[in-house]
Amino acid sequence: MSEKNYRFETLQLRGGYDPEKHNYASTVPIYQTASFNIGNIERLRRIRNYEEKGFLYSRSGNPTLDVLQQRITALEGGTSAIAVASGMAAVSYALLNVAEGGGEIVAPAALYAGSFNLLKYTLPELNIKVNWVEDPNDPESYRKAITPNTKAIFAETIGNPLINVLDIEKVAEVAHENGIPLIVDNTFPTPYLLKPFDFGADIVVYSSTKALGGHGNTLGGLIVENDKFNWDNGKFPHFTRPDYKAQNKNLYELFPKAVFTTRIRIHYLSNFGAVLSPFDAFLILQGIETLSVRVDREVRNTEEIAKYLSNHPSVSWVSHPSLKDDINRGLAEKYLPKGAGSILSFGFNGNQEEIDVFLDSLKVFSFLVNVGDSKSLATQPSETTHGSLTDEDKAKAGAFSNAIRLSIGIENVQDLIEDLEQALAKAKGNFIEEK
Ligand SMILES: *Cc1c(COP(=O)(O)O)cnc(C)c1O
Questions:
Q1: Which atom of ligand 1 is nearest to 156's Cα?
Q2: Residues where N6-(pyridoxal phosphate)lysine occurs (predicted)?
Q3: By the number of CB atoms within 10 A of the CB, which of 112, 141, 304, 337 ranks highest?
Q4: pTM for the complete prediction?
Q5: Domains present along the chain, CATH in parentheses
Q6: How far is the CA of 152 from the centre of ligand 1 (A)?
């Protein structure tokens, strides 16, 4: 199928899959196998020399994952992708792949807590230093944090839990002026709402656990590249030096359109091993089939709920770029014309005891730590996702003590609003009669 001409809604169902090559199965088959028969020794040599595409062992490649990888590549407008076992594996492999061997990363603190902890604690233990951006909304702040040893800027296109929008074009410019890539975590918008490559990002990572999978039933991560960045500019010798996994050839010359993800596959997946299972790849593919339909509806529900909350006396602030006076509105109009996603934060106007009652009283919303599910979810980041951060880091990350994060699903929006209404009332000691 020549995919270049198909639009997003078609690619999400058909991209990267040719039934003819899979016994005409209309649904992508689950290749539930650890190994693949080699056939004969000549074939093994051809596969090893990258002269023939073939599968040997599911840690370094599997046909079900291959379809998922091609599908996200098509949806993203990239040139190659790699699937891994979780979003954190995607973030950590992407950052290691640029900064291994003592490099540095520049990032804002307004990050998913797992990423924040990776950057603050784990990467420094591996001799990868992180220089923090003071103001995530100011592109100049990124420039100030860069040193000669910086290997990438890493940021979220929509920050968690602040719901701030990254000025991708400006930050990409800063990165490129310094010969380094911009790596973005695009989990919140998904490629349906935002394609970071269109604005100069070089590597896009996902937790497919969230809206891509969309049903809260499986962990997964994806890393996507395009072929714009020059990895042979002297800052990344590990991409061009003789590679023992490629007959001591230059990996960048062998895979000019896929060097980043190939390196992750043959080094990190092969040697660290955070591989996605074929069954989980199948579930993520199932989720992606309905991505645009779910996200459109979630965005509509979210916009209504943001408006409702912003008029509620028990709510001191609401962060969602759809609101008229939101500080990210201008950036959202540029980068997210189809909607600013299904996740919002709001400040509860009250004390922790009242917040406890609010969370305990929700009946439709699930109280849990996930986002991007087709079911609506609520959590208090400072007590859950960001609970391991120091108070100072919580403030920097935007996990304020009174902040509640909602991830809006595809339920009937009136039921969601009535659920919030009764829980907010109960938190203040008022009881609303059930309808
Ligand atoms: C959830 C999440 C991650 C981590 O993904 P897992 O699949 O849970 O490992 C990374 N980044 C963002 C923005 C996330 O929401």
A1: 13
A2: 210
A3: 112
A4: 0.96
A5: 3-288 (3.40.640.10), 291-427 (3.90.1150.10)
A6: 19
